[in-house]
């Protein structure tokens, strides 16, 4: 990101050093890099070398006539402000340069415009968009599923941040975080110390408008969803939001109907908005607007690779909305009559008409406030909100669970470890230890997970948990048992969790039933019982489509699981119908290394294998293995299923050496990670036996078939088809041996 700086050139000392020095301190409240020059060559050298800076240039009208033509086209030069002395009235030369923002009689007006630029009116904004209809997100385009999920997550992060309580310790933590962040910047350290000394919650908006700290840090974190900074700065974020709500416009008592915001946008950013008329637009940061359209137009200058945009926000006082905004004229440090209105972070608008008038150089994007009961908005947030705000769960645990959904497990665990040390309420401490158990399980830190679960089951507060939370606890223990390679114990815990949910939880959740059934199915799959796994995958999928919107990422996950096992069990047409309906464009709708891509690559590989496209099948299987290794340790039990797929592909090509290597690797992983004589090993022994039989190595083939038979007999009735088929293999080989021994 480019640094911003102010450069002021005055070679003729028209305004005098004393006057300039007087304003330097004031300007450094906006941009703390302010460079003053009285030599034009030195000024040009500085701006030429400052290629990573965005420069705002103040120059008197006499110096400007000579230096502006030289510097105007420099990319780093953003805006030019010409300061006119009282005795000058020559303005003609400046009109031909579009970066010249105007001719000013005093520095106060320039300071105002610099302030407004700094506070986001001229910068790239962070936003998320959804399409005009939920159903189209699944069918059209490649990246819409992903953008909708980020829309939901972004809303919930901000919702939880504004609800988290805070204490003096949290305020101190915020100050320490800022001091550490800017430890090499003396000017910022000075501002942080001032903030620590003078800040009060009732002055939050005033501090927001005051200078670059803490405004710049907070809005940048909101734009890029920097969860570490957002959590550290949650005290200030909550205070600003709360004050906006308190002074928020009473729509029924005002004639306010329209607000404006001028914006320069990157072309690709604007195209996202332009291509989604009727959709929802969520602004990530706090958002400044004005009642004066002329103020908005000031910030829509023409620049290369940028689009000039004016957002026109239509206010309908009859619409009940939770999008809060307020006139901050009294709180603003500018003390002008602009009547600035500040929207709180995460404000949501409906994108209406987008047009460009021939007479204007800018686009107009008409926005309207969303209603509280907007059906699309409700559908988008309900499912994920329920996932992160479980029964009686604290907001901090909800934030941790949400971070887990966003793949921020380490940060979530770090935050909870800090909070649990200060928590005195036994019930809250127990909930935090339970959440830490879940997080450490996801992080593959089994010992830390076990330690936290142990604190949960030994806590006196356990008896105060609802029966629903008890089912969550058993489920979490089941996940940990899988990690500890205690597969049978994992199945027991998962089945207890499912039984509690079905039999004891009033109005049990389809969402939880889907999750529990899927996890039980995955255990059966690990054990090699695909015929037992399939009905649980089927139930999980049926429950999921009842409780999630069609574009929800878990629908994709459940559909891929069901299709994969259905295909392996001979239900290829059913599998294809599931994928065609629920998993279109998955490869492009998720990040390329997302864990869900593993299932996509495995299923696609098998499909290509059936069509005889061996090279493409191998490419997908290798992609599955590469992605899986990014997220799981080398000997993770599930890896053997990918090696099964690789071995099957080599076998179909007749490449027996590679086939043997793949199945042997699968067997080594099974022996290292699964209980002795796990049923899934019988499948691998059988596959290896077939390789040896094809190579006419009867003794090795027979040895592997008999190993498979020994395992099957310990787990299945003698009438099971797998046992009957294996017996046929063994009998066939003994017949061959008898033939070899005939005289």
Automatic annotation (TrEMBL):
SMART domains (UniProt xref): TPR (SM00028)
The keyword Protein biosynthesis is assigned to this record: no
Pfam family, one: TPR_12
Keywords assigned by UniProt, alphabetized: Repeat, TPR repeat
Superkingdom, natural source: Eukaryota
Repeat among keywords: yes
PANTHER family in the cross-refs: NEPHROCYSTIN-3, TETRATRICOPEPTIDE REPEAT PROTEIN (AFU_ORTHOLOGUE AFUA_6G03870)
Name of the protein this chain belongs to: Uncharacterized protein
Organism: Adineta steineri
């Amino acid at each position: 990101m480019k640094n911003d700086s102010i450069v002021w050139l005055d070679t003729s000392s028209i305004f005098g050093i004393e006057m300039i020095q007087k304003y330097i301190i004031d300007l450094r409240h906006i941009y703390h890099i302010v460079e003053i020059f009285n030599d034009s060559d030195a000024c040009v050298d500085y701006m030429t070398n400052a290629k990573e800076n965005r420069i705002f240039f103040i120059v008197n009208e006499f110096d400007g006539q000579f230096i502006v033509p030289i510097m105007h086209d420099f990319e780093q030069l953003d805006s030019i402000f010409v300061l006119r002395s009282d005795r000058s009235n020559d303005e003609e030369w400046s009109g031909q340069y579009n970066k010249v923002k105007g001719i000013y009689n005093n520095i106060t007006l320039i300071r105002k415009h610099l302030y407004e630029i700094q506070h986001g009116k001229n910068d790239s904004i962070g936003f998320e968009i959804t399409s005009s209809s939920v159903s189209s997100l699944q069918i059209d385009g490649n990246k819409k599923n992903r953008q909708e999920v980020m829309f939901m997550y972004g809303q919930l992060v901000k919702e939880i941040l504004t609800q988290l309580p805070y204490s003096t310790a949290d305020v101190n933590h915020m100050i320490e975080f800022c001091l550490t962040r800017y430890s090499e910047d003396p000017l910022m350290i000075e501002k942080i110390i001032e903030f620590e000394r003078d800040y009060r919650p009732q002055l939050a908006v005033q501090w927001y408008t005051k200078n670059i700290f803490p405004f710049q840090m907070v809005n940048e974190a909101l734009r890029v969803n920097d969860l570490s900074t957002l959590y550290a700065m949650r005290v200030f974020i909550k205070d600003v939001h709360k004050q906006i709500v308190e002074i928020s416009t009473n729509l029924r008592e005002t004639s306010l109907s329209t607000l404006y915001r001028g914006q320069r946008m990157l072309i690709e950013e604007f195209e996202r908005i332009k291509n989604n008329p009727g959709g929802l637009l969520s602004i990530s940061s706090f958002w400044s607007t004005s009642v004066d359209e002329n103020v908005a137009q000031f910030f829509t200058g023409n620049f290369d690779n940028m689009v000039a945009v004016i957002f026109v926000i239509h206010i309908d006082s009859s619409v009940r909305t939770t999008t809060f905004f307020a006139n901050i004229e009294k709180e603003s440090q500018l003390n002008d009559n602009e009547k600035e209105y500040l929207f709180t972070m995460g404000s949501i608008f409906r994108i209406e008409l987008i047009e460009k008038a021939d007479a204007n150089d800018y686009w107009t994007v008409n926005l309207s406030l969303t209603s509280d009961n907007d059906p699309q908005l409700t559908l988008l947030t309900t499912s994920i909100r329920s996932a992160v705000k479980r029964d009686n769960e604290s907001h901090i645990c909800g934030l941790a669970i949400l971070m887990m959904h966003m793949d921020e497990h380490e940060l979530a665990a770090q935050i909870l470890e800090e909070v649990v040390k200060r928590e005195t309420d036994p019930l809250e401490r127990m909930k935090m230890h339970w959440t830490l158990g879940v997080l450490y399980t996801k992080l593959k830190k089994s010992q830390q997970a076990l330690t936290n679960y142990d604190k949960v089951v030994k806590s006196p507060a356990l008896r105060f948990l609802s029966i629903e939370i008890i089912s969550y606890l058993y489920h979490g223990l089941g996940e940990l048992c899988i990690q500890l390679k205690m597969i049978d114990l994992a199945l027991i815990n998962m089945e207890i969790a499912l039984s509690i949910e079905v039999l004891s939880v009033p109005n049990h959740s389809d969402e939880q039933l889907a999750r529990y059934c899927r996890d039980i199915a995955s255990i059966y799959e690990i054990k090699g019982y695909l015929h037992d796994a399939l009905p649980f995958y089927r139930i999980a999928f049926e429950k999921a489509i009842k409780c999630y919107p069609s574009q929800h990422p878990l629908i994709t996950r459940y559909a891929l699981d069901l299709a994969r096992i259905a295909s392996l069990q001979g239900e290829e047409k059913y599998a294809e119908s599931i994928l065609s309906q629920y998993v279109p464009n998955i490869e492009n709708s998720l990040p390329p290394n997302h864990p869900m891509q593993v299932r996509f690559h495995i299923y696609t590989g098998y499909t290509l294998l059936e069509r005889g496209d061996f090279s493409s099948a191998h490419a997908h299987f290798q992609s599955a293995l590469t992605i899986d290794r990014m997220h799981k340790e080398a000997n993770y039990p599930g890896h053997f299923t990918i090696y099964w797929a690789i071995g099957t592909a080599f076998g179909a090509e007749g490449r027996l050496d590679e086939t043997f290597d793949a199945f042997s690797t699968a067997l080594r992983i099974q022996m290292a990670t699964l209980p002795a004589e796990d049923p899934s090993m019988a499948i691998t022994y059988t596959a290896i036996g077939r390789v040896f039989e094809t190579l006419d190595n009867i003794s090795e083939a027979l040895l592997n078939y008999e190993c498979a038979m020994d395992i099957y007999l310990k787990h299945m009735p003698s009438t099971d088809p797998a046992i009957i088929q294996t017996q046929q293999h063994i009998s066939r080989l003994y017949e061959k041996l008898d033939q070899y021994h005939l005289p």
